[in-house]
Amino acid sequence: MSGRLVYVVGPSGAGKDSVMAWARERCAPGAGGPPVLFAHRYITRAATAGGENHVALSQAEFQARLDAGLFALHWDSHGLRYGVGCEIDLWLAAGCTVVVNGSRAYLDTAVRRYEGLEPVLVHVADAVLRERLRARGREDEDEIERRLERGRGLAACAHPRLALVDNGAELARAGRALLDILTGRAGWAGQGRMGKAG
Questions:
Q1: Fewer CB in a 10 Å sphere around the end CB: N or C, the chain?
Q2: Which of 148, 14, 165, 50 is nearest to 99 (CA)?
Q3: What's the angle, vertex CA 72, arms to CA 41 and CA 83, rounded to 5?
Q4: Does any domain span residue 33?
Q5: pLDDT at 94
Q6: Distance between CA atoms of 85 and 195, rounded to whole angstroms?
Q7: How many domains does the chain have?
Q8: What pTM, to 2 d.p., does this model score?
């Protein structure tokens, strides 16, 4: 693997998708350095469901691709199935920086497949996350507290290359922190050193 694989995780409500979208818009081709490519996820969720720009598959389609070995990474979460295609191996072999919208629960498995993987955790303080989840209106107080507890376990993940991006303030600040990681301006990136951004 001659390129870099950046694996972005974060609890629901932390704004991971928004931070990634901000950085993606500013990863202009030809801006110098290796290309930064964002992998689409294949998900058993309708294309009209909103959120990220994903490839919608039926359960049967997903299983057929899985059986054919067409996913580099795959996991199940909250009743949905997620896959990242083997095309990322070609991108990495070409020296690109590849960004994956990942799952914390799958991180250890992903690291076993890609030893040089660089995880990034998008996080916010509990108080901010609690208010965001309340404003969303999808869960009651008990469900919100359980989600916060899961988020604390996420924040406690240990990895020698883990970078933290704080999205508790304005989106542009967190977006710039992720962009610096992706473009190698964060110092630690690709060096196998611990570091924080944000």
A1: N
A2: 165
A3: 30
A4: yes
A5: 95
A6: 29
A7: 1
A8: 0.83
